[in-house]
């Protein structure tokens, strides 16, 4: 009975060795060529959301009375190149008919899109008190994503970085605002001390939400931020629109993600109409691509984003009826023309 079992195992081993390798395959041999280590991956590539089984097989050719070498695989930690290691499974050594085989399977999860790196794999062989290390060479494996054909890294899906330009615009704007507040306070103090002439004091008109949004858009365009940091530009552009919506509809738009905000808007149809929600969803989702996935829009796409922002904040009372065009003859046509000229200068 044992003889039949040994014969069966030997036949299975020879059949496995004769099968063609699948996917990316890397090989290494011992000094005398009697031991071969093969590392293979399934297919010609994988998706970013897939898990990949990397198979390492060590095959030995033995003489009549030769002892099989003990095989020691490396300890795969939590990271292996551009992959996370989810688990490692090792199989016992099989010895039959002048041959021995042992293997292990490492389950990997890719962490980036593009050409992922597979580091070298050292395997220690021990026989008769002597040790030898064979090194399976490094390799690569393509990782794709249906959401980003250009192969952007997942590292790009992060909040926009602070503005780092050659000129400290944030400090300048902040100091300018403080100086303006101090000047206004000083002027108010002097007027109060001297006594303003009768009828000279005038209360400035309160700006509407639309007027504040349009002024903020003019300041954003005039800062030429789109040429220096496009992700920071879209961050301010969407914040202006979100602040306008929050002031006019009482929807909490500033601190919510795009998905959370659109879901809240759908639950309040009296606040935003179907057309407004659809146009706003396209505007915010395109901005998310620029802010979080490092998408580079063209000048025409930037102009279109400004045009949509102006159109939305100038819709009369932001009513849900989706009617008409803005009444202001300077928006969005003439104002967007000025914006495009400033951005291309």
What's the mean pLDDT score? 76
**Strand element count:** 13
Number of domains: 2
H/E element sequence: HEEEEEEEEEEEEEHHHHHHHH
Structure description:
The protein has 345 residues and is an alpha+beta fold. The chain folds into two domains: 2-11 and 21-147, Sandwich (Immunoglobulin-like); 169-190 and 207-344, no CATH class. It has helices at 2-18, 169-194, 209-222, 225-228, 230-249, 258-266, 274-292, 299-313, 330-344; strands at residues 25-29, 35-40, 46-47, 52-61, 70-72, 79-80, 83-90, 94-95, 99-110, 114-118, 121-127, 130-136, 139-144. The strands form three sheets. Strands 1, 2, 4, 6, 7, 8 and 9 form a seven-stranded antiparallel β-sheet that branches. Strands 3-13-10 form a three-stranded mixed β-sheet, with no helix packed on it. It has a three-stranded antiparallel β-sheet with strand order 5-11-12, with no helix packed on it. It is elongated. Mean pLDDT is 76; it is low at 4-23 and 316-345.
Question: Secondary-structure blueprint of this entry?
Answer:
Layout: H1 2-18, E1 25-29, E2 35-40, E3 46-47, E4 52-61, E5 70-72, E6 79-80, E7 83-90, E8 94-95, E9 99-110, E10 114-118, E11 121-127, E12 130-136, E13 139-144, H2 169-194, H3 209-222, H4 225-228, H5 230-249, H6 258-266, H7 274-292, H8 299-313, H9 330-344
Parallel strand pairs: 3-13
Antiparallel strand pairs: 1-2, 2-4, 4-9, 5-11, 6-7, 7-9, 8-9, 10-13, 11-12
Helix pairs in contact: 3-5, 3-8, 5-7, 5-8, 6-7, 7-8, 8-9
